[in-house]
Amino acid sequence: MQVEISAGPAFAFGEITLPPGGAVRVEAGAMAMTRGDIEIVTSTRGGFMKGLRRTLGGESFFVNDFSTRSGGLVGVAAALPGDLSLVPLDGAVTLLVQSGSWIASDPAIEVDSSWGGGKSFFSGEGLILLRCSGQGDLLLSSYGAIRSAVLAAGEVLTLDTGHVVAFDDTVVYRVRKAGSWKSTLLGGEGFVTDFTGPGRVWLQTRSSSDLVSWIASHLPSQHTHT
């Protein structure tokens, strides 16, 4: 997948060039433009249950497949201001992607949902991870810039859970409180995730849940009148 990323890391825009006979799969609503001979087919890709699992994971029920006979271009952009990163998959490692961060991939990449486990549920930061496997390229989006880290075997990286973008399935993860319950409730620090290598981890420099909390705190109070 030939991708040119511009206007990052604040307002990244991805231009995906398709050769004659080429195709790309894109999250519904992420297409910003097309150029040339481009056709689009919308489907649940895998049937009703896979579409439903993607919805539970924060993604759209549908996906869009763009294809071309003579060559063309598809431009994509994420809903929130931030960056894009192209990640190659060689078929040996599966990538677990936080809901909302998958934006496009080669059609050969299988994008499915995987339960993150009870600890992810209690963190309040997303119950379902998207499981991306196969051979090809994957385009990730973030809120803020994307940073990546490669962990050695046994090396630990701790992230605020809202800053997680993706990680290899070779990485073991554990969600826990940032400190005591007092720190969690009064200190502004909620849950964190410990990642233990080996493998790759991607993080975003801003948290969408923090954005939602900030907006909510500035909204006028609503009172019910009887």
From TrEMBL:
<protein>
    <submittedName>
        <fullName>TIGR00266 family protein</fullName>
    </submittedName>
</protein>
<dbReference type="InterPro" id="IPR002838">
    <property type="entry name" value="AIM24"/>
</dbReference>
<dbReference type="InterPro" id="IPR016031">
    <property type="entry name" value="Trp_RNA-bd_attenuator-like_dom"/>
</dbReference>
<dbReference type="InterPro" id="IPR036983">
    <property type="entry name" value="AIM24_sf"/>
</dbReference>
<dbReference type="Pfam" id="PF01987">
    <property type="entry name" value="AIM24"/>
</dbReference>
